[in-house]
Amino acid sequence: MKHRIVVLGAGYAGVTAAGRLAKRLHPGDTEITVVNADADFVERVRMHQLAIGQDLKPRPLSEIYAGTDVTLRLARVTAVDADRRTVALADDHGTDEIAYDTLVYALGSTAADHGVPGVAEHAYDIAGRPSALRLRDRLAHLAAGGTVLIVGGGLTGLEAVTEIAEARPDLRVALAARGGLGDWLNGRAQQHLRGVCDRLGITVHEHADIARVEATGALTRDGREIPAQVTIWTTGFAVHPIAAATTLAVAETGQIIVDDSMRSVSHPEVYAVGDAAIAAGPGGKPLRMSCASGIPMAWQAADAIAARLTGRTKFPKAPLRYFNQCISLGRRDGIIQYVTADDRAKPALLTGKLAARYKEIVCAGAAWSMSHPVLYPVRRHRVVATRSEIRTGVS
């Protein structure tokens, strides 16, 4: 009987894991099924571009997995029973349940409102394609002179505010950052960022902790009112609640706790990658939710699964570390902040058009690798471990 591998989610981490497993394992011994609600691979790092009206190249998952021996199942995951090793699904035809021998949990994350009143009712987000398209429609109908407020001074907020300000110079665009503007960057990068905001006419509200979002704008905890016809919430991400409802060991964030091979510490037949997992990086610091973390986490999980199934006691260690932070500031400017392994800013950086080109190469390269998950020639190994060995953690 074939070993059943189910991958939940087809974002950067899920697509990478499934493709790498297909390259490592012989199809005569394994069945790899990818479950995803969307028919396309979504370039999440480009949602700010989609929101402002740019068209992204469609990347159908059916084409991505054509000829790879990976089965695609279009459905929503509604529950996981980690003890029975089953996944509950729902689609337009009803509900279903599938079983697995090994599970790769890569359901990712969505926008986090941090319990701030009014966010759900009045704010937009760009955490996924449906929400980015809703914002796109709203911005398209916003007349000249309209006011837009982006809440959140992290990477997503900076990319969104500069993209909107550049594409729509007829709008009054503002950014509310809880801390200083780009205060995690080095001094030269911060200076460049301020210059870009000034050039694009962006009003920056620093040290603005938003306490409430209303239909007419936002209110800070110190009583400041920031008017906005459109408020965009980019203050971080939260994982889907499915894992927390299982018997899997999860952190307070709801992320699955994994070891250095991305294997669940409580259920050895479950691996978690990307935003859905909490894993230690250099110095024991948790990896941040990002494409830069998710892809190497997927490499690690796939290599560990393949090694254990094929009877090998050792497997390669993926580079679970950081090299740079790539920030697009519109289509013609950017910042490449080089960082230490644990994500602290170094003195070195790139700015301007060169940085914008660098960021585009990174994004395009990631999308290309997602669209070509199995590159030949490949060496596919035969499965030798039994199901009981996998379930009990024996290599």
From TrEMBL:
It is an enzyme of class 1 (oxidoreductase). Keywords: FAD, Flavoprotein, Oxidoreductase. Belongs to the NADH dehydrogenase family. Residues 4-302 form the FAD/NAD(P)-binding domain. Its EC number is 1.6.5.-. Its cofactor is FAD. GO terms for molecular function: oxidoreductase activity. Pfam families: Pyr_redox_2 (PF07992). The keyword Isomerase does not apply. The keyword Iron-sulfur does not apply. InterPro entries: FAD/NAD-bd_sf, FAD/NAD-binding_dom, NADH-Q_oxidoreductase. It comes from Micromonospora parva. This is NAD(P)/FAD-dependent oxidoreductase.
